[in-house]
Design a protein that fits this description.
With 440 residues, the chain is an alpha/beta fold. It contains 13 helices and 20 strands. It has a domain of 186 residues: FAD/NAD(P)-binding domain (3-Layer(bba) Sandwich), CATH 3.50.50. The N and C termini lie close together (10 Å).
Amino acid sequence: MRVGIIGAGATGLAAAYDLGKLGHQVAVYERSPFLGGQASTFDVGGARLERGYHHLFTSDTDMVGLIHELGLGSKLRWIDSKVGIFHQGKIYNFVTPLDLLRFTPLSLPDRFRLGLVTLYLRRYKNWRKLESVTADAWIRKYAGRRVYDVVWGPLLRGKFGEDYYQQVAMPWFWGKIQTRFASRGKGMAKEKLGYPMGSFGEVFDVLGERIKGAGNEVYLSSAVRLVVVEDGRAVGLEVEMPGEEPRVRRFDAIIATTPSYVFPRLVPPLPQDYLNKLTKVNYLSAVLVILVLNRPLSHVYWLNIADRSIPFVGVIEQTNFVEPEHYGGKHIVYLSNYLSTQHPLYKKEHGELLEEYLPHLRKINPDFDRSWIETSYHHRVDAAQPIIGTNFSQRIPDHRTPFRGLYLANTTQIYPEDRGTNYSVRMGKQVAKMVMEDYT
């Protein structure tokens, strides 16, 4: 069987790898000049750094298993996490139950209530019963107004913006609690997060080499312009490759890993019910400014900003996770935002956005000075976060599209899990299996 795959992110590469191991012929087409999609890397301080911060939880068994299968298990490190909340000009550690007891912005009864609600969600398993309620409404009702106002409300607003934070369904929030607690041991243990010391980029490079080593192809800087459909069946891809005129390549099956809003542009008109499931999902883009500093900004790896006067939602200090020596002694800080493409901050160029952010860094560290910055980078990752609304399971498009032999696999289909390399790898494997079952 010949299979064409659109996109060389985690999903597309995982599918190609599994198909290739079973002797099928695979060709992967990626319009970018690099592998890895949202987990791709670039060079900083002599090492590779993800364009958007990435780590693994102990529950990420699909990605961890793949890393070991590729022979990179010795490079996978499990590191104590350092998580904090910035509230009213102060950083509060937020990792262990003791940290919660020390969180003085909440009264002692509210601290206990926050802890009990979190523990309840950790043990709650039937997420489907939460589908009809938003995270905003559920948290207000069960955690209380003060917990909402101080902790989770600002984070929802920061993550999804004023337009969407009240629309996000409770299973999304439930999934976040489940994932984070899965990386903690019993009792008072700290959260453990994983990182492949050669970067996620190395994982995907080795994966790409394994795919090609099985006699298959991975083409970069190669844009798919059209999925060719004949008599209701997908039979090929029109691809534009460097230095060549666009031409059609024939396949027995095709897997598209594009965002939902891109897919209809590549195929003939779709039935209205399937099209509605694609077009009625909104996405936010990840907008990242990455600072390379000559000294640390804080002591925290993952700092949630619970202060909406600050125009970014997270400060992720990579070198409080992986040592600065890994990056030539430099200190790496991500300033993270999730924005619609119409948001004024999304439209700002690198220099403008940096100037917007700089004054707020002094709130986090009053000693911060512009001279600490040796260089900076700016990345936009579109379609990074789908907006998961209520009763979302009823609106997920099927992997099997209305055209025979054509499959769709993207981050709207991993619900109730949230986006991440682990779930993308899992989905790639599932769709590859589906393709083989249908072909047989």
